[in-house]
Design brief:
The protein is mainly β and 74 residues long. It is built from no helices and seven strands. The protein has one domain: SH3 type barrels (Roll).
């Protein structure tokens, strides 16, 4: 599957395993992920492409009060 900015992805490895992120940009080896939907509070994280899983069905995205992604229902 081709990775595109704006898609939702789940971390498969690391301290942030099972966290949900928004893909911000993609290059040959790495994907840059954001943990928030808001512009001002966004933290960008660099992850290896093989350590993320794209969530195909975004369904309902629930966010906490400060805009961070909390839960995604398929």
């Amino acid at each position: 599957m081709e990775l595109k900015p704006g898609m939702l992805a789940r971390s498969k490895a690391g301290r942030d395993k099972d966290c949900i992120y928004v893909i911000r940009s993609v290059n040959d080896e790495y994907v840059y992920l954001a943990d928030s939907l808001e512009e001002g509070t966004r933290r960008i994280k660099k992850k290896n492409r093989k350590h993320i899983q794209v969530i195909k069905k975004t369904g309902n995205v629930k966010c906490e009060a400060h805009g961070r992604i909390k839960h995604v229902k398929s």
